[in-house]
């Protein structure tokens, strides 16, 4: 797929965090992060092939989720980035997920802020984020980033709230 946008920068830095493109070795912690959702952990091979697919789509689409590493501690704590998700390549979604052990320290907001800047640099004018109605931590992150609630849709698991941010 080609687009009218400049490819997103896949290496980003904040005060405390480094965001980078996925490496196959990230499969080890990525499957543990998925496991924290309370669903079945993917096998190492499944996680690895998801990462290979993600890298391929990043090259095609010019947007991606990125890994988040804490600079001082050197550990990987999750991911943040842009995805098509339920939206479009022109107006993608911002997404984030962190290990429980690193919640509540402002990391998601810090990572998402620099992803938002990276989205602006691609020439995009609007971002979305779709959030399950019960996910108050996620709503709070979006609020801090000046997203606004827009509308809801429903699927088999219930209400999904669409939040929008004009860039
Ligand atoms: C959503 C998530 C990424 C937030 O990460 P985080 O690093 O803890 O976020 P931050 O610390 O930047 O900000 C969280 C904010 O939510 C608030 N918060 C946390 N839990 C909350 C709750 N249950 N109800 C209301 N607010 C809550 C925090 O107090 C903080 O706000 P504050 O800065 O005003 O105090 C993290 O909870 C997560 O990975 N959840 C599982 C995956 C997920 O839901 N991803 C989003 C899918 S849409």
Describe this structure in words.
The chain is of the alpha+beta class and 167 residues long. It has a single domain, classed as Gcn5-related N-acetyltransferase (GNAT) (Aminopeptidase, 3-Layer(aba) Sandwich), CATH 3.40.630.30. The chain is globular and about 35 Å long. The relative contact order is 0.16. Helices cover 31% and strands 30% of the residues. The structure holds coenzyme A (COA). Coenzyme A is lined by residues 96-98, 103-109, 131, 135-138, 140-141. This is GNAT family N-acetyltransferase. One of its GO terms (molecular function) is acyltransferase activity, transferring groups other than amino-acyl groups.
CATH architecture assignment: 3-Layer(aba) Sandwich
Question: Regarding CATH, which class?
Answer: Alpha Beta
Number of helices: 4
Low-confidence stretches: none
CATH-assigned homologous superfamily? Gcn5-related N-acetyltransferase (GNAT)
**Main structural class:** alpha+beta
Sum up the structure in keywords.
single chain; 167 residues; alpha+beta; Aminopeptidase; 5-stranded antiparallel beta sheet; 4 helices; 31% helix; binds coenzyme A
How are the elements arranged and paired?
Elements: E1 12-13, E2 17-20, H1 27-36, H2 44-61, E3 65-70, E4 76-83, E5 93-98, H3 107-121, E6 126-132, H4 136-144, E7 148-155, E8 158-166
Antiparallel strand pairs: 1-2, 2-3, 3-4, 4-5, 6-8, 7-8
The structure holds coenzyme A.
